[in-house]
Structures are given as C-alpha cells and as structure tokens.
Amino acid sequence: MATMYYDLIQTELGVIYLQADHQGLKLLSFASDGYQPPPCWNYHPEKMHEYSLQVKEYLCGQRQQFSLSLAPEGTPFQQSVWQAIQHIPYGKTATYHSLAVQLGNKKAQQAIALAKNVNPIPLVIPCHRVICDHPRLSCRFGLDLINRLRHLESGQIQPELLPL
Q1: Phi, psi of 137 (to 5 degrees)
Q2: Distance CA 98, CA 104 (A)
Q3: Is the CB of residue 109 less than 8 Å from the CB of residue 96?
Q4: What pLDDT score was predicted for residue 136?
Q5: What residues are labeled active site?
Q6: Whether the predicted model's global pTM rises above the 0.90 cut
Q7: Can you list the domains of the chain with their CATH numbers?
Q8: b or e along 4-38 (b: 16 or more beta carbons within 10 Å of the residue's beta carbon)?
Q9: Residue 65, pLDDT score
Q10: Residue 104: left if φ>0, alpha if ψ -120 to 50, beta else—which one?
C-alpha cells in the first residue's frame, strides 16, 4: 500500500483536507467538527504544497484551472464522468443530459448524477458546475456550498482571502 500524505487548509468554507500518494491527489474533503484524519495518513505539508497552493489560489480567485496530478479511485464509468466534468470551463455549467450525450449514452443521466456525487476530489473536479432540474439533489455537500462556488466563479462574490 502506498504512503498517503495529507495537508489541511483553514478556509471560510471550513477545514479542507487534501490527501495524495505518489500517483496524485486522491481526496479533497470538507471536514465536519471533530473530524480527525485516519492515523495511517502522514501529515506532510511540504509534499502537499502544490495541491494546497492551487486550492488556495482557486478559493482566492487567482486560479481557474488546476494543473495537478490526480488519482481518484473509481470505476471506469466514474472516471469517464469525472474526466468530462473537468472539461467544463470555469464559470460555466453543464447538465446531466449534456454530459450523457458527450459520453455517448443519453440515458445515463442518473448514473452520471451518482458518479458526480461520489467525486472524491470536489473543487478540483468541479462537480458544482453540473446542474439538474432538481437542485436539492445536486451535490452531497449541499446547495449553500454549490451556490458559493458558482458565485465565486461568476464574480458575484468576492473570493475569500487566504494567506498564500
């Protein structure tokens, strides 16, 4: 088993944990109060510097695209959905239907929704850019976070000021 490294970032959105191994970023999670990472993770801000820096830059409105090695774990279908989501431009949105058409299966909208909602690297794989007819069902992180990220990307709110 590969060594897992992590770092955490204090943000207005809460504490964000980043986890990576030698292949790339595996996980970005929003921690709830009292959360502690598993003891098998190694706290190593130096090894995680580029990941943390790019997330901070994004949240400060200084980055629109990520250039990180990613290594999310998922099925081949989930991987294809996450790849498609990464191609949605900053400040734009796509629908489940448009992603289904892009992936060659117009009937795959529900499967795309499921894959999107288990995305292990939100923000970097910007699932908040995917919309549906039922906004309450749009993301496991809740509408408040989705709306804040969409407003950040559209320039409707000021980016949060994080020390870089």
Answers
A1: -100, 10
A2: 10
A3: yes
A4: 52
A5: 127
A6: no
A7: 76-154 (1.10.10.10)
A8: bbbbbbeeebeebbbbbeeeebbbbbbeeeeeebe
A9: 95
A10: left
86: which 2 tokens?
């990464």
Taking only the tens place, the pLDDT of each residue in 107-157 is 999 999 999 999 999 999 999 999 876 655 556 667 778 888 888 888 877
Whole-number Cα distances in Å, 43 to 23, 29, 108: 17, 15, 39
Give the amino acid at 10: Q
- pLDDT tens for each residue of 62-80: 999 999 999 999 999 999 9
Question: What is the amino acid identity at position 80?
Answer: S
Give yes or no for residue 36 having a pLDDT over 90: no
126 touches 119 (CB < 8 A): no
Q: How far apart are CA 159 and CA 118, in angstroms?
A: 26
User: What separation in angstroms does the CA of 72 have from each of 8, 23, 28, 39?
Assistant: 18, 9, 10, 20
